[in-house]
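Worked example 2:
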Amino acid sequence: FSMNNFTMNTYEMKRDIVNFSEKISKNCDKPTSKFVIDMVYGILKSKDILLSSISEALQEKTKKANTIDRLSNNLALELSENIDTNYRNIAIEALGDNPVFLIDDSDIIKPLGKKFEDLGIVRDGSSLKKSYEKGYHVTEIVGLTESKKQPISMFSKIHSSTSKDYVSANAVTFEAIDSVCTLLNERSIKGTFVNDRGYDSNEIFNHYFDKKQNFIIRLKENRKVYLKHKWYPITAIRDSRKGKVKIKLMFQGQEKECYVSVLRVQITAKKKWLNLVLVYGLGETPMMLATNIDIKSKEDLIKISRLYLDRWRIEEYFKFKKQEYNFENFRVRNLRAINNLNKMLTYAIGLIAILSDKIGKRKFV
């Protein structure tokens, strides 16, 4: 399934775009509703986030400069929370009764930026040298749609440690998790949150325990675990085993034969007992996953391993935003406007995920 073909058909899809935009801007005033419709449609039609490109795609009778000014003025406003709420309510319906959420941080690099508000210094994840550049941090949670595992954003926030009201990266992570948990609690369902090693901290574990959500977290090598009445470096546990259960997993486009073991261990966070899943054979270093999900069979082991490996989809989502919609090339300078622009792109991509999932075709693969 080609994204190029999908976005080229936005003329025929205008009704779907308008209906979706009207739903997410429900209970907003008419100017706000028009703004949301124009932004979502303009982004999808132009495949760009530059206001000049969006304005050109709208083909309004007024001067292009006037359209740009109108869109720019709206982006600078504090938008109604109803829009985000309506969008998330629509998005979560596509995830089914056992939703899976992938959480990760990314970056936006603005090396030549001088007048962007609260521009900080971030590590350029796309650089082979992992150099530091001027830019912003992005915290994102995507859910995987039920039928085709399309990534659809449930939370996205651009932030900077130089902002006056900035607390910490963890504070933003907790805000993200809490926003999704609110949706889950309203529906009386549990989600599974999948996290990379960057989220292996007692604060994160404790937060999931408090929220009573399922999680899978890849562990760092400096973690200690309690087993058989003694605390051990996790690497000692990992290196003393080879895996008991033989399974096959898709990894980097190839099916690999792996061996997996599971142990009941305790971690320092609230002295809670968890399942430690050790996966051997995917790379030079065995993978260590901590989860509070019950494991009673080989199928459970396979499911947890596969859920973690699905985490690459959020990385593909980041790439998609940047490469297909040129997101790092935004020109708005106010941090609120930058976040509002990010939201509009989030809604546009969310609609693509929902529609492509419904018609049974794959995306971001």
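The longest strand covers residues 254-267. Residues 1-5, 360-365 have pLDDT under 50 and may be disordered.
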